Every structure is written in structure tokens, then in C-alpha cells.
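Need C-alpha cells for this chain, all 335 residues.
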Amino acid sequence: MVPISVLDLSFVREGDTPRQALLESLELARKAEELGFKRFWMAEHHGMAGVASAATSVALSFIGAGTSSIRIGAGGIMLPNHPPLVIAEQFGTLESLYPGRIDLGLGRAPGTDQKTLRALRRTYDSADTFPQDVQELQLYFAHPSSDQAVHAVPGEGLEIPVWLLGSSLYSAQLAAYLGLPFAFASHFAPEHLLSALDLYRREFRPSATLPKPHVMAAANVVVADTDEEAEFLFSSAKLGVLSLLKGRPGKMEHPVSDVDANWTEEERAGVERFLKYSFVGNPAKVREALTKFVEMTGADEIITTARIYDLAARLRSFELLASAFVASRAACGQP
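Here are the C-alpha cells for all 335 residues:
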């Protein structure tokens, strides 16, 4: 089985604070490190009551200080919200503090609504220069030339791995053109997964840092001892998506036994489309489903997220997931 990682949005529960969410993110990162997950990524979202990872580089520094070996990174930084030099300095600082452990995934979307975007002093056409901004950022991480006028300190010469993230064909094509690893956000945008991966692989141009295409695919994964318990836990994710689709996203909601009582048939269909690549159930069921997902996508890595209300249940889910894939690797003769 391919390497598996964790994507965390530092979900804030109903009745809790961002502080509690960030403390729980650290507990999850420590558990992920203990269990042998490859990466722990956090995502940039702004103005959302249920997400505490807006200041992503700051949150990652907290995670880095509390762990020792797991790779940590952004999944991702929404580059149109920031000058490339600032991101180079922030992630250069992280790499200086936690050498050999930092990843930088870059997204093109704003990660927020239009009013919050204006508060960030950005506009929607900021994304028009995304390809140039990515290349500028790469230059700041490279070894400086003799005539270079602007320097990222810390940052230059550190050659921090840069990934492109996407939910459409645009970033797939750009990642192929630049020879960068590509992560697809199939955990919330499933529609173009296979066509984006096909385009990326077909048009990939080897670069100095990546000789061949490298794909990470994202999925929602909730594992429990029984299918019934897993489905109950997963209801928080369904309710969260329902609130998002209604235009009123909030804090993470309590799981419910009868989620169907909360939506119309049309709303249910919308939530199911959003969560198409979700694997929920007992360890054997999830192992089989995720294995088929890897075969279907040809992914080199999988990154998983779990919107589970109770921290103990969230930790248990990742524990069961790790156990399932340890058994799977052993069965395949893999280390």
C-alpha cells in the first residue's frame, strides 16, 4: 500500500474555542507520528468559525515544536492571498526550525468568501498571476544568483518541496508544466479527479526536483470497530457539508443517529456528491475501499481527513486506519 498521511483543518467543535481545536490538532499530529503516517498537513481557510488553521504557518510551528519526525506542511497555503516573499520567509523559518520536515502545498483559490477576501487586501483577479507567483516563490528557495536583488531570509538555499494543490484541471496542467508533485482535493471536489490526474501525467515535464509524475489523492476516512459506529461518527461531516451548501458554515456539529431527518432529498444528493470519495466503516471494509481507490487513481500517496466530533474517536479512527494498512502492507510483502 502507498504512504498515507493526515490533512487537518483544526476543526472547532460546537461549544469549543480555536485554542481547544489547536491543542487537539497537536494531539492528532503526535498520534499520526506515533502510528507512522508520512505527513501532517494543515489548510488555510479564513473567516470560518469551524476552522482554526487560518494562520497556517503559525499553527504548523506549534505542531512542529510538539513532534519530532513526521513531515509537516501546508495543504495548503492559498498563494493569491500572500506576497510570495512572505511565504518564502515563513516556510524558510519553519524549515530552519524543523529541518528536513517541511512541505509547502500551494492552492490558487482564496479559501474564503468575497468580503473576507477584501479584508485580506486581495481581489479575485489576484489568482491571475498564480503561475508567476509560484515560480517567484521557487526562486526564493533556490540558491541565490550573484545579481539577485531580493532575498528570502530565512528561505534561500533551503529547496523546500513545493506541491501544487487543485480541484480542477488548471492546477493539474500547471503542476505538469512546472514538474511539481500534484495533490488533488478529491475529499471535497470529486468531479474532475480522474481527468485531472490523466492530464497531469500526460503533460508532465521532468524538472530538477521531480523526474516523473507524483500524485497524492485526498479522501474522507472514518474508521470504527463497527460500520454502524463509523456511520454515526461520519454524520458530523455530512451535517458540516450540508451547512456549507446552505451558505452558513459553522462549528463542527454533534453526530446524530438519523442524519436523513436533517435534509431534503435534493440536499442529500448534494452532500453525497460532495463526499463521493469517503470511506467509512470497519477496518477491513475501509482497507478494501481505499485499496480500490489507490488502484483506480494510481496515486503515489493518499492523504486522509476525518471530521469526527469526539477527539478520542478521531484518534481511534486513525489508529484503526494505521493498523489496517500495516496488515495490508504485510500481506503484500511491503515494509
